[in-house]
Structure formats: structure tokens, C-alpha cells
Design brief:
By secondary structure, the chain is of the alpha/beta class. The protein is 28% helix and 26% strand. It has 10 helices and 18 strands. The strands form 3 sheets. Strands 1, 2, 8, 9, 10, 11, 17 and 18 form an 8-stranded mixed sheet that branches. Helix 2 packs across helix 9 and helix 3 packs across helix 9. The radius of gyration is 21 Å and the shape is globular. The structure holds flavin-adenine dinucleotide (FAD). Flavin-adenine dinucleotide binds next to helix 2, strand 12 and strand 16.
Length: 416
């Protein structure tokens, strides 16, 4: 059933009785050509592109909870493609282009709002680094603008330009960046994949793999054994656990990342602003709440909740940038499990078992990558080889010393 103005009018006149469930609540079949583990945005997008672009429709997405219950439904929804390195930037720019057409493609309003992403800089050296990054982005086909302090002042109200410790000297703006509605991304991909024949199976935890030499023949689940031709992992913070079930040790650490929402306010910040001298980023939701976050908690954990020192750290970043925020009340906070890699860049590709593939290692930033991650993993599964966009993101890069170290933080997952 298409969502359209005609159908809204028709259903309105018919008492809203004719709407169908957005996706089928499927019961597991004994066998699938492809089993995707993880019903977050990445797993659902992978299934959708497998069906839509590669004609592979005998696909199941197995989710241990409800779809979008992981990081997809817990993030601060910042979407951007402001990366520096050739291994990253074309991938994220492809993702941004997919975001731009997503609502139309899925026939589902994901509320993608291109309100801009502004990275503040606080020293001349940082401004030089942003100029370099902006030029790299332009050369790779993305958009970027370097703003001076006056342009920033005109764009964002309430910033502290008098702060002697963190003076604002300008910013790097990507106007095509912005935010989206996180749940809608999961629901939109689920609905579109289900319409193409994909089975979305919730409350189905994968507990092990059945192996025959170099191949996985089936997955063990809380709802029984399911035979699989190929298996794709899209389990974010649980990547190392699932890989371990298959006998593979991944260079991924799981850490908690918290996010926060304030009480509802009148429209104040109409773009995304990030602090350049600490870890703090903020935007305002359509409901008026300020949505913000900061650094990971810094200790390995699978808990979806964090601790108070990071709350204090984030609050300090908030008032250093926007002193008026000191009077705003916090409404909610929550945590997600981040899949941190040593170089801060993801892994999309084949694992060292014949028919096992993964997307993971998204660190703080996998929401923006949702469409391209699914697109690339689907390509890799269908062709048994990576696409040019994810070729550099292989697991082997760590053995070969070909890290994609965007931030230059070295081999410490908790520092990225
Ligand atoms: C607080 C916070 C803020 C963030 N902010 C941003 C941001 O502003 N911008 C950005 O780009 N990114 C951000 N991220 C990162 C982003 O949310 C993630 O990288 C992205 O959503 C990962 O999507 P996913 O589909 O891979 O993972 P998830 O949505 O976590 O999906 C994985 C799914 O796998 C399921 N699963 C796990 N184990 C099993 C099993 N054994 N069997 C079956 N299913 C299983 C889980 O239940 C889960 O639903 C943030 C993350 C957090 C936590």
C-alpha cells in the first residue's frame, strides 16, 4: 500500500480502517539464501538493497529485540559527509546522496532535514585543518564552506564568543548535512524490504553458527535452527560477540555512548553545531527538545546506560559553548553500545569464513552511514567482492597496516 495524499484522504473518509501493517510479522522459514543478523538500520538497509538492486529476495533479517531497538533508535541522528580521507569521503558522500532520495525511494517520510552541520574551530591551527578538510571534501564532490567568526555569529544565536579558553575563530559548514528521524529509518527500510519479500523476524536471537569446514551452513536462534546460504552480520556493539561465535576475533571494543534531550524550548538552534575543542554536539528536535551528546564513557561495556562523570563532562562542554544552557533542564538520557575500531573507521566486507560478511565498527558515526553501509554490504554479499566504495574498509587492513585513521588518534579504540 503506497503512502500518498490520495490514500490519506481516502482513509480519512473511510474512518482510518483500511491501513495495512507496515511490514509482515514473518515466522522463520527453515532456509534462506541470505540471513542478516541485526534489525537495526544497517541490517534492514542491507536486506532492502539485496532485494531491490540484486534481486535476492529469499532473505531474513533476524533481530533479537524489536527493530531499531539498538543504536539506530538511540542516536543523535547527525548526518554529514565531512570526512578527509579518500578511504572514507566517497563512501559518506554516497551515503548522503542516498539520504537525499531516501523518503521518495522508500515511500516513507524519514524526516531528513538538511539544516547544515557546523563544526566550530577555536584556533588558527584548527581553522587551517578545517580549510584542508573542506578542500578535500570539495575535491571529492561534497559541499563545504569555511566561515569566519562573524559569519558564525550571524548564523547561531547564544554562542559564547567571549570565552577566553575556547575563542570561536570560525567554522566548517556542510549545508547538505543535517538530521533525520531515527525510528523512521528503521521502519521505512523494514516496510520497503518486506514489500519486496524479505522476512523481518523480531524476538529472534542468534545464539550460534553451524559450520561445515570453511562455510556456515545454518544459524542457531532462540526460534530454532535456520539454514543459510550466506550470512551477514550487522549487529554494531555486538559485532565482536557474534564474530566470536563463528570463531573470529575482531579488533572491535564495545563502549557506552550517552545522549541527552532537554525540556522543549521555542525554536533556537536551527542547525547542528559541534564543539571543536571538546566532544559536544547539539541540535534541536522538531518537538523543541535540545538533543546533544559527547564522548564515550571510556570503559568497555555492553550496558545500554552510562555513568555520571560523562554527564558532567558533556554539561561542561554545553555551557562552555552556550552559557544559557546552564538554565535548561535535562529531560532524558540514555546509552547505546558503540562498536569502536582502532582507526575509528568501519569494517564492511568478507570475514575469513567463506560465506560470512559484516558491516560494523561504526564507532560514534554509523547512523549517517546507514544507507551506504546497507548498499555496500548488499553489493559485497551479492557479488562476493567489495564495491570500490568499501574496498578500503576490509578487515585485512589492520593486518596490512593500511588503517584509515581519520582522526589520528592511534591504535586505541577508546580514543576514537
Ligand atoms: C548515543 C548515541 C549517539 C549517536 N549519535 C550518532 C550521530 O549523531 N550520527 C551518527 O552518524 N551516528 C551516531 N551514533 C552511532 C549510530 O547510532 C550507530 O553507528 C548506528 O545506528 C548503527 O546501526 P546498526 O544498524 O549497525 O546497529 P543497531 O541499530 O545497534 O542494530 C544492531 C541490532 O542487532 C541486534 N542484535 C545484537 N545481537 C544480536 C543477536 N545475537 N541476534 C539477533 N540480533 C542481534 C541488536 O538488538 C540491534 O537491534 C550514535 C550512537 C549512540 C549510541
Amino acid at each position: 500500500m503506497r503512502y500518498s495524499i490520495i490514500n490519506v484522504l481516502k482513509q480519512g473518509l473511510a474512518g482510518q480502517k483500511g491501513w495495512q501493517a507496515a511490514w509482515r510479522d514473518a515466522t522463520p522459514k527453515p532456509q534462506y539464501d541470505v540471513v542478516i543478523v541485526g534489525g537495526g538500520g544497517h541490517g534492514l538497509a542491507t536486506a532492502y538493497y539485496l532485494a531491490k538492486l540484486h534481486g535476492i529476495t529469499n532473505v531474513a533479517v533476524l533481530e533479537k529485540g524489536w527493530i531499531g531497538s539498538g543504536n539506530t533508535g538511540r542516536n543523535t541522528t547527525i548526518v554529514r559527509s565531512n570526512y578527509l580521507l579518500p578511504g572514507n569521503e566517497p563512501f559518506y558522500e554516497h551515503s548522503l546522496k542516498l539520504w537525499e532520495g531516501m523518503s521518495r525511494d522508500l515511500n516513507f517520510n524519514v524526516m531528513f532535514s538538511q539544516r547544515g552541520v557546523l563544526n566550530l574551530c577555536h584556533s588558527d591551527a584548527q581553522r587551517d585543518a578545517y580549510a584542508r578538510r573542506g578542500n578535500a571534501m570539495l575535491m571529492m564532490g561534497a559541499d563545504a564552506e569555511l566561515l569566519d567568526a562573524d559569519q558564525v555569529r550571524r548564523m547561531v544565536r547564544g554562542l559564547d564568543f567571549q570565552n577566553p579558553r575556547f575563542p570561536i575563530t570560525g567554522g566548517l559548514l556542510q549545508r547538505r548535512g543535517g538530521t533525520a528521524r531515527h525510528d523512521a529509518v528503521a521502519w521505512g527500510y523494514a516496510r520497503a524490504a518486506s514489500e519486496l519479500g524479505v522476512d523481518i523476524i523480531q524476538n529472534c536471537e542468534v545464539t550460534g553458527f553451524v559450520r561445515d569446514d570453511d562455510r556456515i551452513t545454518a544459524v542457531e536462534t532462540s526460534r530454532g535452527r535456520i539454514a543459510a546460504g550466506k550470512v551477514g552480520l550487522a549487529v554494531a556493539g555486538h559485532s565482536s560477540l557474534l564474530a566470536e561465535m563463528a570463531g573470529i576475533r575482531l579488533p572491535i571494543e564495545s563502549h557506552v555512548l550517552q545522549a541527552f534531550v532537554s525540556e522543549g524550548l521555542k525554536p533556537w538552534i536551527d542547525t547542528v553545531v559541534t564543539f571543536g575543542a571538546g566532544h559536544f554536539y547539539i541540535s534541536q528536535s522538531d518537538k523543541g527538545g535540545l538533543v546533544f551528546g559527547g564522548d564515550i564513557d571510556g570503559y568497555a561495556s555492553y550496558a545500554q546506560r552510562g555513568n555520571l562523570p560523562v554527564v558532567e563532562h558533556v554539561a561542561a562542554g554545553a555551557v562552555a559553548l552556550f552559557p544559557a544552557l546552564g538554565r535548561v533542564r535535562l529531560l532524558r538520557s540514555w546509552g547505546g553500545v558503540m562498536d569502536m575500531t582502532p582507526d575509528g573507521s568501519p569494517i564492511i566486507g568478507k570475514l575469513p569464513i567463506g560465506n560470512l560478511y559484516m558491516t560494523g565498527g561504526w564507532c560514534y558515526g554509523g547512523f549517517k552511514a546507514t544507507p551506504a553501509s546497507g548498499w555496500c554490504l548488499a553489493h559485497t554479499i551479492a557479488n562476493d567482492a567489495p564495491h570500490a566504495l568499501n574496498e578500503a574498509m576490509s578487515l585485512e587492513r589492520f593486518a596490512r597496516g593500511r588503517a584509515i585513521d581519520e582522526r589520528g588518534a592511534g591504535p586505541r579504540p577508546n580514543l576514537h
